[in-house]
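Q: Start with the shorter request: fold the first protein.
A: Done. Sequence, then structure:
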Amino acid sequence: QVARAEAEISARERDRADRTNEFLLDIFGAADITNRGASGAEVRVVDVLEDASRRLWEDTELDPSDKVRFANTVIESHQAMRQHDAAERLTAQTLEFINDHPAVAPLLRARILRTAGHNALEREQFERAADLFAESIAAAEAVKNQATTQQEVDFIADLEYSVRAEVADVFRILGRCED
């Protein structure tokens, strides 16, 4: 029975990896010049990210937690390119998705909230950033005792440490702003 259970887990993980691979190939295949009729058109990273955002929510095969992980990556990519409005839109969609899908790993909510806090910080929305960081810490602490793997325990500890440092930076900035 143990061997059968392990085989079932392995098959589910393989299927999940296959779906993830197909999704990524589809996303990055959109940038392939051969898929554009060899028109020689330039492909902008922003367009690929927007396409990824759209396809992410349309894909019915991806695991909900994987969708949130991909969304976080796209959000962080938007932020890195100073596309804060796009990052904020995708963050709102992702949080709504998380609320509608209780099966999504609870720690992912904390990660998305931290990412949203970074976006607010980049936009110099310091009080909003502090609120989002506080929500991120609360979300992580709410599931701290439910961590079942060392990886989860380490993630929670890293998240709490980094977010608390970011909150301290925000408060320092706010303190300067009041001077």
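Q: Next, the second protein, separately.
A: Sequence, then structure:
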Amino acid sequence: GVAAGIKEMDSSLAEMQAGYAGIGQGISGMQTAVSSQKMALTQLQSLRAYFAQMPSNTGSDQSTSEEAPSTADWSLADMLPPQVKSKMPESALQQLSEIKSLDELDSKITALQGAIAALEGKIASSEQSRAQMETAMASMTAARSEMETLSNEMQTLTDAIPSAFETAKQDYLAALDAKS
């Protein structure tokens, strides 16, 4: 009966607590990812500002130096100063090597902003789910406590019944003896 119900609630609470902890770890991981993506976004935006200030190598305003190499086929990674390249992760340099124009860089920036927004939405949703789970666990803990109290009261009543019957029997017999 009630004891079995309490045992099932304990099992359910343990499962919910494990799920709660798992959601917390997921949120932490997503927050770390957002932080990394925001750092990457800041770097891309800085690169964008840097490259926007560079003179274009297309059109009639080409370099007058005959020794200057053409940058028409260079990627943004190729144009980075060595001190900047040395601070960037290889994966970022690989992605920048695929970008040949400011429009492509703007597209990467927009995509990264979208990814950050999506992750932040998932974090908010996960935090809401976690809060709801916490409320449910508190309700289950309260219900478990009530069931334990009920079980204790029922046991007290069960223990008291034989004594109460014995007392009633003795009182009845005493009353019969008093009448005779």
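Q: Describe the second briefly.
A: Helices lie at 2-52, 76-79, 82-85, 90-97, 102-179. Confidence is low (pLDDT under 50) at residues 57-71.
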